[in-house]
Amino acid sequence: MKSLKELIQADYLDELKKRRDLVPTSGSSSPTEIQNQCPICFDRGIIVKDDVAYPCSCMQQKKMENQFRHARMARGLLNCRFENFRQDFYHSLNSQDRTYLEYALKAYTASQEFVRQCILESHGLGLLFTGPVGSGKTFLAAAIANALMEKDKQVLFLVVPDLLDELRATYKSEANELDLLDTAREIPILILDDLGAHNYTEWTRNRLYSIINSRLNEELPTVITSNLSLEEMEEHLGARTTSRLIQACRIFRLNVDQDIRLSKYQEREKR
């Protein structure tokens, strides 16, 4: 009887022959099958060393890609990681004022603590990051999402303006609306990014209230980013929704002298 290694080697050689047969001739296009295959395991998902099968590295990549897609995160947020957090963006132009950096470090530490807590316990308080545009709120929210997905936690990342558009689009389709709302209400970790001064109607305010209130009652953690102060939130969202956000979240303020995106742009231009 052939060993596992011999069986997989034979299968490997057979696949290699097929790939040679599929190699396009000059002027022809490359077959889709070749483009999609992992060059290490040919999409089998395993490699063999000393008669022992191991998962191929491509499986972890595919797994992360699937999680990323289901989380509905923009691809540009994939590199938002805690190790990429930069303290220098929070140094105030006034050398005597360390408030910006101190507040940013508190938010950063709370984000890491939140990840550790979510890994250990599925229920608990969420986080609310407030501050002006370009102060790093979305970065921390995405870093939380990426860290949790690496630990196989279910995360849903919703940009509030997009969520409102989807809710409006489902106005005449109760089934689709309930599906979207149920997902937001029941997902273990929900991130609501860019909760700002949007074009809220009483109908959309009620939907947001439904999501936040349901998660508060079930003690499901929610991470929220907003450029609104609590007073402005009350004005745009209503007192009952704002009150529940305060009850459901630890609140942290981020401030910068200059929009971080502009700072990064200026760095690129100097290279």
Record keyword descriptors for this entry.
globular; 7 strands; 2 domains; 12% strand; single chain; 271 residues; alpha/beta; 5-stranded parallel β-sheet
Strand share of the residues? 5-15%
Order of SSEs: HHEEHHEHEHHEHEHHEH
**The CATH class of the largest domain:** Alpha Beta
- Secondary structure tally: strands: 7
Strand numbers in spatial order across the main sheet: 4-5-6-3-7
Task: Indicate the mean pLDDT.
Answer: 81
Tally of domains:
2
The Cα radius of gyration reads 24 Å
> Any idea of the CATH topology of the largest domain?
Rossmann fold
Q: What's the helix count?
A: 11
Estimated structural class:
alpha/beta
CATH architecture of the largest domain: 3-Layer(aba) Sandwich
Poorly predicted segments:
2-10, 15-35
Shape, principal axes of CA atoms: globular
Most strands sheet: 5 strands, parallel
